[in-house]
Amino acid sequence: MSSLTIQIDRTRLLADLEVLAEIGRGSEGGITRRALSKEDAAARNYMKQRMVGAGLTVTHDEVGNLRGRFGSGEHAVVMTGSHLDTVPAGGRLDGPLGIVGAICAVEALGRVGFSPKRPVEVVVFVGEEGSRFRRGTIGSAAISGHVEVEAIHALVDGEGISFRDALSTYGDEGPRRPARARKGEVHAFVELHVEQGGLLEAEALDIGAVTAIAGLVQRQLSFLGEANHAGATPMHLRHDALLAASTFALEVERIARELGGGAVATIGKFEVFPGGKNIIPGRVEAICDLRAPAAALLSALDDRVCAALGTAGQARGVSTRESLLQRVEPGPMDERVIATIERAAAAAHVKSKRMISGAIHDTLHMAELCPSAMIFVPSTGGRSHCPEEETAPEALERGCEVLARTLAELAS
Ligand code: HGY
Ligand code: MN
Ligand code: MN
Q1: Alpha helices (H) in 234-380, listed in sequence order
Q2: Which of 22, 204, 304, 336 ranks highest by number of CB atoms within 10 Å?
Q3: What is the pLDDT of residue 367?
Q4: Of 290, 283, 300, 247, which is closest to residue 268 (Cα–Cα)?
Q5: Which atom of ligand 1 is nearest to the CA of 384?
Q6: pTM of the predicted model, to two decimals?
Q7: pLDDT at residue 2 above 70?
């Protein structure tokens, strides 16, 4: 494959990313596209047109994944893709790069007359971020069989809307193919994605070949104190839920730092009730997000955090509750696909580095189904999940070229 002359259409790549970036952009500059929302549907529609324009055969499945196939034949398919849904006020590359880049890569292969022995299928996974429903990586969980389609259809969002109803409102029209892949249907999977950290930039490297993806535990936490008058209640008579939750949050940070080894912990959602400026907080609802590259470390982190929750409110007469939102096990990537990515980077004359992904991706579930790995490109300033998310245009193009070469080898 190193003999292939791959020329990515950078103008097209950047233009597609710009179109998507305007769908769901908020006043503060971040992009918000919740799964199966009007914005998500608009972005998916654009990608559907783009797939048709690229000559791909377009289908969609029973959980709303969109797929565009290049090539035909009975051989097992090589899949690539990513997601269009975002975190609240997120960036413009997390997800879209892996879809737009895949279409540009397939077009570049078509332009040099490459005809794959195995079909190549670009997939838009539904609901990767978990910003609307209680779990993320929904589309890949369905394709890999990690979660039954029925269980996905039964998911309910914070407003009580079921996945099934959201899909019928904002999913694609027309016949839906089965979501779950048949055994042996998929030969390999590779996802192009921004690193979302600062390692590649710090080492002035162009490409990351992901060797493993960290696991995650997310828990809903409640702190139940006593609302009371902010002025008439002496300090020693208070059961302040916010102070209990704040003490807990600092303890969570201490636990993660003490464990080390790549363990990280975040409380990104923190709501104070009733929320009056002259009322002692009676209740706090929070979500903690725990990550670690190894299952044992993830369990140790989770156990320590749950133990800390149990004692967090005692001194203040605040009770606590918790419920598991999701646990996704960490997973290794496939050595052959990693090596293919490294060969593709060498053929593109770019330096690559093996690395672990701290972020979760659909690739984690696809790796349960078939040999899988990921291609990372640098994130400017190591930033992601924020409006500042950026990657230099030449790095975006290089990532697409490496993806094109990787797909060419996997599909041959
Ligand atoms: O949370 C994650 O790691 C991913 O962005 N869904
Ligand atoms: Mn993300
Ligand atoms: Mn992502």
Answers
A1: 241-259, 295-312, 335-347, 362-369
A2: 304
A3: 98
A4: 290
A5: 5
A6: 0.96
A7: no
